[in-house]
Write a structure and sequence with these properties.
With 214 residues, the chain is mostly helical. It has helices spanning 2-11, 18-25, 29-32, 39-50, 64-81, 83-86, 97-113, 117-139, 152-164, 172-180, 188-212.
């Protein structure tokens, strides 16, 4: 399984095949069919194996919000480590035991915090979508004119230069953003944490309103 994960991480899903895995392992393709039915089943097993990297050892004595944030960061981290697989979590059903265990643990944390019924479903889905979706966006490949051979930092600098060159009378807010913004403090981690804390603020406020209602 480790070899399949490594191959997908390095070469992507488009280039992944049973034959390519066999070449990487120096084994015949037919030997894999003693263990898995087909490529789809192998990908499902890869997704479930990756879920074991979500650490479920958070402190049960800490507030639900801290525990939920911890787990969101864990899901986000595996999405970034395995960017070629991360998008599949929203595109196909993964029902392996490790995936289910991680999802069940997050539900337990939210339920312990007071979320029930629709609020529980919404809170769970929102956190999972944000954690994995952010990882997919942060890990996407650069493309388009001028992107070839350039790093993310170089592309960001080019984008900032382009915005700064816009006519201020037509695009005052974009030009001002570049002139006043401190881009050194706005990296992927800062953006993720800002969004996560903002989401948790809203979830906590909604939960408190539901408790205060007679």
């Amino acid at each position: 399984m480790a070899a399949a994960i490594k191959l997908i991480d390095e070469e992507g899903l488009d280039g992944f095949s049973m034959r390519r895995l066999g070449q990487a392992l120096g084994a015949g393709t037919t030997s894999f069919y003693w263990h898995v039915k087909d490529k789809d089943q192998l990908i499902d097993l890869v997704m479930d194996q990756i879920a074991t990297e979500v650490r479920l050892d958070d402190d049960a004595g800490r507030p639900w919000r801290e525990r939920a944030a911890y787990l969101a960061r864990e899901f986000h981290a595996i999405g970034k480590r395995h960017r070629n697989v991360a998008a599949l979590y929203g595109a196909r059903i993964s029902m392996g035991p490790n995936t289910l265990l991680a999802m069940d643990h997050l539900l337990e944390v939210l339920r312990a915090g007071g979320f029930e019924r629709d609020r529980l479903t919404l809170a769970f889905s929102s956190l999972m979508t944000y954690a994995l979706g952010s990882a997919v966006m942060e890990s996407r490949d650069l493309s388009g004119p001028g992107a070839e051979g350039k790093s993310a930092e170089e592309m960001q600098a080019m984008f900032a230069e382009m915005l700064a060159s816009l006519p201020a009378d037509q695009f005052p807010n974009l030009v001002r953003l570049i002139a006043e913004g401190n881009s050194g403090n706005v990296d992927d981690d800062a953006q993720f944490e800002y969004g996560l804390q903002s989401m948790l603020n809203g979830m906590e406020a909604d939960l408190n309103r539901s408790i205060d209602r007679p």
